Amino acid sequence: MDERLKSFWAGARAEFPLLVGVFPFGMIYGALALNAGLSKPAAQMMSSVVFAGSSQFIAAQLIHESAPGIVIVLTIAVVNLRHVLYSASLAPYLASLSTRWKTLLSYLLTDEAYAPTILKYEQEGIQPFSHWFLFGAGLALWSTWQVSTALGIFLGAAIPESWSLDFALPLTFIAMVVPILRNRSAVAAALAAGVMALLTYSLPYKLGLILAALVGIIVGTFLEGRQARRVSR
């Protein structure tokens, strides 16, 4: 099999465990979007164009509350700032790609696609067709998200609240984070970010998530720097 296809299917397979949690999350969004007053085509188009679960949930809630358009746009921008960190992390491995490839991969870059991809890249380094791994992971997630959204829209209010499908989102993020916690610095950074997220949960526009990310970065960077100084000595 061509090396590109091998890398593509490897990315899709690595993404599969996370899709189990993504599917019910997409169904919840589909039902929520209809309850918020969005039409079926608009709800599905948001999944295709925005393609960001947390932002879509927030947008649907703000639309339901008749929030101004500028507030919706700014809120989504703040929530999605974490993707800047993902992009910076992957940039060294994708620097040689054409603008067309970078544009496509930036569209497909999500939390769930980033997690298995960065683990793969850190293990193998820069490879000729490594970008196909991210392409496979991202496309697998995109396809699942579109189907699950459509199913949620189709079922609508028929999804009973007793199913409690909202558990899928935190489980998915736990599955993404745990494999990356391979040293004390990473564990400390995750704990610091988690504590900060809890302390700042009530801040508007999800600013607590941004503060939590910054605290996690600072703690992790500080501890890694101290460890590097110890090794050099």
Write the layout of secondary structure elements.
Layout lengths: L2 H33 L4 H10 L3 H12 L4 H11 L2 H13 L4 H10 L2 H14 L6 H25 L12 H10 L6 H16 L7 H26 L1
What portion of residues is helical? over 70%
Q: Please state the oligomeric state of the protein chains shown.
A: single chain
Q: Which blocks of ≥5 consecutive residues have pLDDT under 50?
A: none
Number of domains: 2
Number of helices: 11
**Element-by-element helix/strand order:** HHHHHHHHHHH
Q: What is the typical, i.e. mean, pLDDT?
A: 84
User: If you compute it from the alpha carbons, what radius of gyration comes out, rounded to the nearest whole angstrom?
Assistant: 19 Å
How many β-strand stretches? 0
Distance between the termini: 48 Å
Strand content: under 5%
Structural category is: mainly alpha
User: Major beta sheet, specifics?
Assistant: none
Mass-distribution shape = globular
